[in-house]
Amino acid sequence: MNLSKTLIYDGSFNGFLTAVFIAFDEKINVADIQKNDKGQNVLFSETETIFTNVEKAKRVWNGIRNKNYNAITNIYFAFLSEEDGVELLLYTYIQKLMAANRGQSVDYSDGVTLRIGQLSRSVGREKHRMEGFVRFQLTKDNIYFANIEPDFDVLPLISRHFRNRYADQQWLIYDAKRGYGIYYDLQGVEIISLDLNEIHFNRTRKSKVFTEGEYDYQELWNNYFKSTHIKSRINRKLHRQHVPKRYWRYLSEKKEAV
């Protein structure tokens, strides 16, 4: 019996692309592709650990781009969705892509292609929401801090937006759900990990981490927010569609609502 293989990688996007390269190069019958911290035994399948190789990852990236430039965004965004089984879904998608003629239009009637597109759009919507819903608070270290818990791993996607918008300030956006953040030190952005005793979000109880002036500004913003409301025109259903309730505890203007 010709056993298939489950490829185990380090969880990074470059690690996944390396696994794709190895699978193509060695003509492996792939049963699954799994992160090393979530590896599960697959019946009638042996495992192989893949070590990330940036050069091999680049070759896959360039190969996909040469076939279909728009597919790059779909693949990366779908990967960041973290959906269970997304790696095998993406591998199947890449197989179909590489087998197609160059410039051939995308077949959205295909179930795999359709699902990748859906995941990509969902991650894209979350990216835009995070760019609008992040609320910074000034710490006593003169760093603007914000923590978020997005549905998908969008920190890599919002880094450029905040670097361009707040280029003259030190800031840190921390993903409390995934345990890492992006920190801008006026020179560049780096990925960091923090040992937080508590998750800081906008609330009525003050934290010693932030400056007193920060709470004064929040109070001004809250008063402005309330003064611009016209009660007779409030449409709560529409409001929740544009500002989902799961984001409220990180919005200073919603401090009294959570």
Protein model, in words:
There is one protein chain. The chain is α/β, with parallel strands linked by helices and about 260 residues long. It is about 40% helix and about 15% strand. The chain is built from 8 helices and 8 strands; from the N terminus they run βαββααααββαβββαα. The mean pLDDT is about 85.
Number of strands: 8
Strand order of the largest sheet: 4-5-6-7-8
Name the helicity range.
Answer: 40-55%
Low-pLDDT runs of 5+ residues are none
> Can you tell me the overall shape?
elongated
Describe the structure concisely.
With 258 residues, this protein is α/β, with parallel strands linked by helices.
Features:
8 strands, five-stranded mixed beta sheet
Give the SSE map:
Blueprint: E1 4-9, H1 13-25, E2 30-35, E3 45-49, H2 54-67, H3 69-79, H4 86-99, H5 111-133, E4 137-138, E5 144-148, H6 155-165, E6 171-175, E7 180-184, E8 189-192, H7 212-227, H8 236-242
Parallel strand pairs: 1-2, 1-3, 5-6
Antiparallel strand pairs: 4-5, 6-7, 7-8
